[in-house]
């Protein structure tokens, strides 16, 4: 029994989830949104958006020394993306599990990448890797006034 882990699961967090251009082009937007919606997390921000180069570079700045960085920026700016902010206790780690491993061939069946993609360079979806990055990325991709605070009708049936 690890009380600090239980406490962290109860902490309400926000994560930035994005359907990448390949997911949009392949008609997977509804399918990907559904995975998070059915799980029971709360959608607080959603838009279709053509990402400018400087935003893509800022979002992925930790990877800017990697050999694949220029192609990654080209990929993310190659067409519209669907930007989402999701809220819930434990949503950051849970969303990463729903998404699956970075390399879709290593991702477990049942995960988004495991079910819907075959290559790291076209892995259809992004998810923040920590609560701090969740906040940072939502701040980058959404403007003031684009997020909604609301109480879903099902809230009382999701948590005791
Ligand atoms: P993540 O998306 O699972 O968090 P990261 O390591 O943060 O994975 O990498 C960010 C994104 O950069 C990946 O989702 C993928 O689109 C791309 N990427 C990572 N490694 C490679 C690579 O070796 N080749 C091509 N693209 C890569
Ligand atoms: Mg990452």
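^ structure tokens above, recovered residues below v
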């Amino acid at each position: 029994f690890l009380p600090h882990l239980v406490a962290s699961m109860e902490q309400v967090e926000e994560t930035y989830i994005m359907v990448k251009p390949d997911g949009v082009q392949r008609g997977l937007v509804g399918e990907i949104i559904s995975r998070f919606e059915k799980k029971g997390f709360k959608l607080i921000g959603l838009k279709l958006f053509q990402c400018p180069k400087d935003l893509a570079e800022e979002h992925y700045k930790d990877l800017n020394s990697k050999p694949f960085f220029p192609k990654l920026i080209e990929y993310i700016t190659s067409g519209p993306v669907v930007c989402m902010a999701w809220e819930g206790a434990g949503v950051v780690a849970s969303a990463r599990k729903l998404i699956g491993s970075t390399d879709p061939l290593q991702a477990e069946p049942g995960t988004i990448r495991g079910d819907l993609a075959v290559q790291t360079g076209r892995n259809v979806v992004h998810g923040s890797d920590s609560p701090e990055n969740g906040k940072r990325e939502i701040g980058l991709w959404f403007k003031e006034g684009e997020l909604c605070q609301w109480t879903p009708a099902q809230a009382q049936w999701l948590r005791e």
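Residues 129 surround magnesium ion (ligand 2) (CB under 6 Å).
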